[in-house]
Amino acid sequence: MTETALILIDVQRGFDDPEFWGPRNNPGAEANIKALLDAWQERRLPVVLVHHDSPKPGSPLRPGQPGNDFKPELDGARADLVFGKKVNSAFIGDVDLDAWLRKRGITSFVLAGIQTNFCCETTARMGGNLGYAVTFALDATFTFDLEGPDGSVLAADELYRATATNLHGGGFATVRSTKDILAGLS
């Protein structure tokens, strides 16, 4: 039986800047991220922490800035792998995540983090395309309102629901709640 890894995407302090990012949704995301991390750590299951190293000069996620640091919910985490990336997918980062998972015989992972509709969704789609059994912990993610090309704004909750629909409808991932994921570990 293979182990299921927990991959936490971009759980960084820089996302706490509402002036930079705007309105967010799901204020309970961090508590759910912490619950997943605690459960994986307790069972000594593989944990991967990914951070976004933005190359953009004004980004709070730039390396060397306090915003690049992980949020307090990850304090004390015993990660099996920690690495950075400069794009949306964790499969295109400073480490070959696909090779790392395959070398360990890991064929499934639970995904959580920030932002729901960017780095989390992109990583889930690529994982699904690569043949992994991906479980997307929707309530352990959050995102921000986003302006479209016509100037209209989609609320974070709309983007959140769209990601769940895209992943489910496209067969990229199974979308579940933290509570259901944790119940399945018992």
TrEMBL record:
> What SUPFAM superfamilies does the database record attribute to this sequence?
Isochorismatase-like hydrolases
**Keyword tags:** Hydrolase
Note the superkingdom of the native organism.
Bacteria
**What GO terms are given for molecular function?**
hydrolase activity
Outline the extent of the Isochorismatase-like domain: 4-151
Alphabetized Pfam families for the sequence:
Isochorismatase
| Matching InterPro entries | Isochorismatase-like_dom, Isochorismatase-like_hydrls, Isochorismatase-like_sf
Q: Gene3D superfamilies, per this entry?
A: Isochorismatase-like
Q: Per its record, how is this protein called by name? A: Cysteine hydrolase
Instruction: Give the originating organism.
Output: Amycolatopsis vastitatis
Q: What is this organism's lineage?
A: Bacteria, Bacillati, Actinomycetota, Actinomycetes, Pseudonocardiales
